[in-house]
Amino acid sequence: MECVVQGIIETKHVEALEILLQGLCGVHRESLRVHELCLKSVPNLGLVSSEIRLLCDLEQPEPTWTVRHVGGALRGAGADQISVLVRNMMESKVSKNALRLFYALGYKLDHELLRVGFTFQFHRGAQITVTVSSVNKMLKLHSTDEAVPVTPGIQLVEVTAPASSENYTEVVAAMSSFCEYLAPLLHLSKPGVSTGVVPTAAAAAASLMSDGGGTAL
Amino acid sequence: MWGREWGKLKIAPFHFRVTSAMPIKWILHWQPNPGTTVNSQILSEVSQCAESINGVKDGRWKSTLSFYKAMGREQTIGNEFPRDFVGISLAEQPSKYFLVIRGQRLVVEAETSIQAIMEKLQSYKTRVALNFEGNQYQLGDFQLRVGKVVPMHSESLRGIVMEMEYLPISSWEKSHQMMGDFFDLWQEALSKRSLSGHFVHNEPNFREYGLTDQYSFQHTAVQYASITAQMIATSQGANQQR
């Protein structure tokens, strides 16, 4: 299970966001370069169609693979009240043959993306990961060297934290509390709920860039 | 036992375990003579043989192999999806799970969470699983495991397997002579018991699976998938002759 919120930020303000995150998290950023392959089951496989994601971390000296299954989100009146998406999610590290295996099992590539950016991972009431990345599409199949941004000038910010059915309310609270610090620069909400860039972003970014984040926003 | 010459093979004292690289393992399965079947008496004789050559019993082991079956919306799913897709859990790696499709020479090493992921996908389900379990014995630089093959939730004996592990070497090629010699000695000791069958060692072509000469848990998973297929083929062959 994981808790997720997303938002967008103009690329010109990413440096300011990084300064803010550095100050808030107290850890160093880690570079991100992940090739994400989304596979879907062929017709007739399974009682319902299914989807699986393969993530290849290209930032490592030797690419490493992870299989990720994103499941259904928490539903009901209670879930609607929460500003954070709580959904089932499972992952497994896998060896490099995983893509060939899923092709052999009857899964086909639906789409692929290259995410390039950075992450901050820290503990603040919950184990939180902030990912800031440009989302790129490949012009040729699997060609990560020839990728172009899907939305030039705009980057995606994702804040996630692992959770369980026992502790997700605490995790939601921790995430919501943290996200408030980012409010001057960007608005974070449930994936699928589009909010656009925030009007205060330019001023907030200028403030952060002028004094390196020393002034409280 | 220590430093005893056993034919051409010197069983050296067990001084240390190589931890930086994995030791070589051969996995053998029992092939009953035509017209006979495997039974618990044979299992007992094999275990006694390990002890008679001064194998020191030092614990139990258990590995599991599950058969995955494709689920489909149509009544008959046909041959469009692999029928030889298995998942393997190994005794010495409880945090890992291995997926093998023999016909496509594919092996994937994953974390145990992959089982839950496969369950969530609902595209493949496991209905039948086999347990490989028994005692293990130390014999100088060798470790032997003798195990029965039983369906999960059943005591019905379907086969007998043996693992022969040579601790000092992790190269498949370099260990071949040593393992071959040990296997010959083992077969010789076992032959004195006049059992109706013998152990078989068929080496999978690891290169076809993309595996190197350096032994790994993936090599073990491939061997288990291979011997299971052979045991099933033997059993089906025996059934057809009746």
**N- and C-termini, Cα separation of chain A:** 32 Å
| Top-tier CATH class of chain B | Mainly Beta
Total beta strand runs of chain A: 9
Question: Compute the gyration radius of chain B: what is it?
Answer: 19 Å
Largest interface: A-B, 26 and 31 residues
Q: What order do the helices and strands of chain A follow?
A: EHEEEHEHEEEEHH
Provide the CATH top-level class of chain A: Mainly Beta
Subunit structure (chain B): Component of the Mediator complex.
GO cellular component, one term (chain B): mediator complex
Protein name (chain B): Mediator of RNA polymerase II transcription subunit 20
Organism (chain B): Erythranthe guttata (Yellow monkey flower)
Describe this structure in words.
The complex is a heterodimer of chains A (217) and B (242). Chain A is built from 5 helices and 9 strands. By secondary structure, chain A is α+β, with helices and mostly antiparallel strands. Chain A has one domain: Hypothetical Protein Pfu-838710-001. Chain A has an 8-stranded antiparallel barrel. In chain A, a hairpin with a 6-residue loop joins strand 3 and strand 4 (64-73). In chain A, helix 1 crosses helix 5 (201-211). The model of chain A has no long low-confidence stretch (mean pLDDT 90). Mean pLDDT of chain B is 87; it is low at 1-19. Chain B has a single domain, classed as Hypothetical Protein Pfu-838710-001. In chain B, the strands form 2 sheets. Chain B has a 9-stranded antiparallel sheet, sandwiched between helices. In chain B, strands 1-2 form a two-stranded antiparallel ribbon. Chain B contains 4 helices and 11 strands; from the N terminus they run E-E-E-H-E-E-E-E-H-E-E-E-H-E-H. Chain B is α+β, with helices and mostly antiparallel strands and 242 residues long. Classes of the chains: A alpha+beta (217), B alpha+beta (242). The interface between A and B is medium-sized, with 26 and 31 residues. Chain A: One of its GO terms (cellular component) is mediator complex. Chain A: InterPro entries: Mediator_Med18. Chain A: Keywords: Nucleus, Transcription, Transcription regulation. Chain A: One of its GO terms (biological process) is positive regulation of transcription initiation by RNA polymerase II. Chain A: One of its GO terms (molecular function) is transcription coregulator activity. Chain B: One of its GO terms (cellular component) is mediator complex.
